[in-house]
Design goal:
It is an enzyme of class 3 (hydrolase). The chain is mostly helical. Helix content is about 55%, strand content about 5%.
Length: about 625
């Protein structure tokens, strides 16, 4: 019944099939004899009140026409509220005529096509209402993880979904025509102008590390050390250069430099161990690798690529180093400003666009009004989707969309890519994952210290005197990261497979031979750059079809998830053995507490059992 939200269900008494003029008064719509009718609500109550009499008249006329004639010319448009009701009348008329064999094949075909169009319209409307289901952790068995880990999962990744989510604007029709126009403009830009930007200076030793920008194992820590704490600036610049965004949208080099430096200042504002400029650079680079390796980039327009990169760069701008729940519990200014809804995510977006309004950092100054609107809408959708409390709902929605034949909305697809990149450090190599884990825990502990000072209860994983690190990471991988990457992989395969089908049918540009994304050498940086090209040469994009004829792409994150989880399991088992040994010692352990506490560690086990440090080793041995 929830899925019919926004619709009116009219149950009418039977045995009145011949009385087609019967008119119901609810919401200005018709009731129908002997049927269960689903009608869409009108969007304005005032409009309903002012037009109910005229609509009743029109509906009565449609009813009569639907039950007597077999033409479709006078039937209401398929996307109007009356269409589903009139369609039900017409279908009943068809059934009666079929029983009497009093209908031609042509009339039957025309009416079935009309009915199919009505059903398709209702189906699409209902698909957009998938967000009405509540979040849950139903897949997590009660004993699967420690209670503290379960509490953390529930607090961080679930929320009440009683509020109505904002629906994105409907996409325009005739997309292929729009893409063709954009492609023509893109080619024209290449011939008519070059970028006025002279480019940013990237030190040679930083360039050597940026050569690995297309790799999943890219080490942002090494880049940050080499770049003197400017990894976000150089990674951001290289990504914009790689997709030729700087030239396409005439971004001045000085303005771009100021924008990237302001981003770094914002990320460094609160000196966070985890949510800092390295995290911004890492997430942006991860998004790029996913787009590039999956070939999803061929599905996107220039402005969508631009918005995706910027959304990744700004997604945690001026992060306070505390969770949304902390802001809500303390009644902070941002929590009051955004009414406890996606507090930090709303702030990141607002602060970033406010910064870009300044002339010296406005990288959007050359966008047209339409381009800016599309850019802003996509950035807002993507960054809001990084709110972890939407996690389970986001996964549910995509699983539902994957089971349907319709294509997936670009905003939803790109939001999922950014979300996975944001939580994806457990899917990286162990040495990188280990560093991110320690930094995140330190940030949690600092929040716990503040909660202790304020007399608030500790949030999950924020009590530095006792955290089950290995168990928390196992739970994080099992219930959050692994399912997310699995759904994202399925989504990417579906999208690109559909592109390949269009390619075979001749209705789309060949992905394997796409001249719009020719990989060339970038003269300014020596890193590969995805420049638009009007040439006819074959793209160096590798073949996307496997030996079985299905779309394939590399998923390096899957192996890392398996390996990292195994390492944490081994550590958890070792920690459990050490705790048992200490418990067996009894009083001897208590007598040695003073010696044990002096050997402090950044990562500790549960204080109810022991205070000895967990032996975390970056090598994984």
């Amino acid at each position: 019944m929830d899925k019919l939200k926004g619709y009116i269900i009219l149950a009418n008494p039977p045995d009145r099939a011949k009385d087609d003029s019967t008119v119901g008064s609810k919401n200005g719509q018709l009731s129908r004899a002997g049927s269960l009718t689903v009608l869409r609500r009108t969007s304005s109550k005032t409009k309903v009140g002012s037009t109910s009499s005229s609509r009743t008249s029109i509906s009565t006329e449609n009813d009569s026409y639907a039950s007597v004639d077999l033409g479709v010319d006078k039937l209401p448009p398929t996307d109007t509220p009356d269409a589903s009701h009139v369609c039900s009348i017409r279908l009943r008329n068809l059934i009666r005529r079929l029983q009497k064999e009093d209908i031609s094949k042509e009339d039957l075909q025309r009416n079935l096509e009309y009915a199919a169009s009505v059903l398709e319209t209702v189906y699409i409307d209902e698909t957009r209402r998938l967000c009405d289901e509540d979040d849950e952790l139903s897949e997590v068995e009660p004993d699967a993880v420690p209670s503290e880990v379960r509490d953390w999962l529930a607090l961080t990744f679930t929320r009440s979904m009683s509020n109505i989510k904002r629906r994105g604007e409907e996409k325009p029709k005739f997309k292929s025509v729009a893409h063709a126009i954009r492609a023509g403009i893109m080619v024209d830009r290449i011939y008519r102008r070059l970028s006025s930007s002279t480019g940013l200076h990237v030190p040679p030793h930083v360039l050597l590390l940026l050569k690995h920008l297309d790799e999943w194992g890219f080490d942002v820590f090494a880049v940050n050390d080499a770049a003197d704490n400017h990894s976000l600036k150089f990674v951001g610049y290289e990504l914009l250069q790689k997709y030729d965004i700087i030239a396409k949208y005439k971004i001045n080099s000085t303005v771009l430099d100021t924008f990237l430096l302001n981003l770094e200042i914002g990320y460094s504002k609160y000196k966070n161990p985890y949510h800092n400029l390295l995290h911004g650079a890492d997430v942006a680079q991860s998004v790029h690798v996913i787009l590039n390796q999956s070939k999803l980039v061929h599905w996107l327009t220039d402005i969508e690529i631009f918005a995706t990169i910027i959304a990744a760069l700004i997604h945690d701008y001026e992060h306070t180093g505390t969770t949304n729940n902390f802001h809500i519990m303390t009644g902070s200014e941002v929590a009051l400003l955004y009414n406890d809804r996606a507090v930090l995510e709303n702030y990141h977006i607002s602060a970033s666009f406010r910064m870009m309004k300044n002339d010296d950092s406005n990288i959007l100054s050359n966008l047209s009004r339409e381009e800016f609107k599309e850019f802003r809408n996509l950035v807002i959708d993507m960054v809001l989707a990084t709110d972890m409390s939407f996690h389970f709902q986001q996964i549910k929605n995509l699983k539902g969309l994957l089971s349907m034949p319709e294509s997936i909305d670009k905003a939803k697809a790109l939001s999922m890519v950014l979300h996975c990149a944001d939580i994806g450090h457990p899917a990286k190599e162990w040495n990188l994952h280990y560093k991110w884990t320690n930094q995140l825990l330190e940030e949690f502990f600092r929040q716990g210290d503040r909660e202790k000072e304020l007399g608030l209860p500790f949030s999950p994983l924020c009590d530095r005197s006792g955290v089950l690190v290995a168990e928390s990471q196992i739970g994080f991988i099992d219930f959050i990261v692994d399912p997310s990457f699995q759904v994202m992989s399925d989504m990417l395969e579906k999208i690109v497979s559909n592109l390949l089908k269009e390619q075979r049918s001749g209705s789309a540009t060949s992905i394997n031979e796409d001249p719009a994304y020719d990989v060339k050498k970038d003269k300014s940086t020596s890193t590969t750059s995805l420049h638009s090209s009007s040439g006819s040469s074959r793209s160096s994009t590798p073949k996307l079809l496997g030996s079985d004829g299905k779309f394939e792409f590399l998923k390096p994150w899957l192996d890392h998830l398996v390996k990292n989880k195994q390492i944490w399991k081994e550590r958890a088992a070792k920690d459990a053995e050490e705790r048992k040994k200490k418990e067996a010692k009894g009083e001897n352990t208590n007598n040695n507490n003073s010696d044990t506490s002096s050997k402090t560690s950044d990562v500790k086990t549960n204080d109810s059992q022991a205070n000895s440090p967990i032996p975390l080793n970056p090598s994984g041995k």
